[in-house]
Amino acid sequence: DLASLLHVKARYSVADFCDQQDRMDASMFESCLSTAHRSGVQLLSAPSRLSDVAKVTPRGVRRALCMARQSTPYVIVDLGQPHRPEHAQALYLAESVVVAMCLDFAALRQAQRIIEYLDDHGVARDRIKLVFNRRGRPGELRVADVEAALGMKAASLLPEDPRRIVAANNQGSPVVEMKPRSRIGRGLFELARSMNGHVEN
Question: 85-93 and 58-71 are packed helices; what angle lies between their axes, rounded to 10 degrees?
């Protein structure tokens, strides 16, 4: 859904890339990316049809990531639930892996499964950044209890701010552009700084 959320036109998907990977050069790779968002972000989108997911291969994902790293200083991959072989390629190449979760029991159990999966695939704990999202909801678990259950400290605490997030999603504009001085905007900037060291706001 990222193309829709950013209001950009996705020309092709990662499935299309995998289909043509042996013919890919830098120019062809550039043509696979979406039109640029006004922030400069471009997207190699997920397949729009579920039937095309089978075309996405570990080899194709690795090649796409390597080409992306040659053409841009930052590559961000949204894995959702990282449990497929092609997801492992992104994990092997990643400098940092963000595990974002809300402070509730279901999210805690899912985070435990993801961290166990990362452990099993040799992702060192110092590469994992634990992010508590939507903090401040009524009845949520205590930060200290969740950190103890996961055996990790949170790298970032992002506040609950549904009004600004929904507005940003509906307008196709990142909240850090719309409301950079809001608590959620500042929290996202701090998370980015913790990963690259020099984001300006």
Answer: 30
Q: Which residue has the tokens 């678990």?
A: 141
Tokens of 194: 């913790």
For residue range 130-174, list pLDDT tens digits in order: 999 999 999 999 999 999 999 999 999 999 999 999 998 888 888
**How far is 116 from 110, CA to CA, in rounded Å?**
10
Torsion angle of C-alpha atoms 69, 70, 72, 76, degrees rounded to 10:
-10
∠ at Cα 48 (44, 52), nearest 5°? 95
Structural tokens at position 155 = 């790298």
Instruction: Give the count of beta carbons closer than 10 Å to the beta carbon of residue 197.
Output: 7
The dihedral through the CA atoms of 192, 194, 195, 197 has a sign that is positive
Please state the length of the chain: 201
Taking the C-alpha atoms of residue 78 and residue 37, their distance in angstroms, rounded to an integer, is: 17
| pLDDT category of residue 51 using cuts at 50, 70 and 90 | very high
Residue 9 CB-half CA count within 13 A: 3
| Banded pLDDT at 104 (limits 50, 70, 90) | very high
What Cα–Cα distance (Å) separates residue 85 from each residue in 97, 178, 182, 190?
A: 16, 37, 38, 31
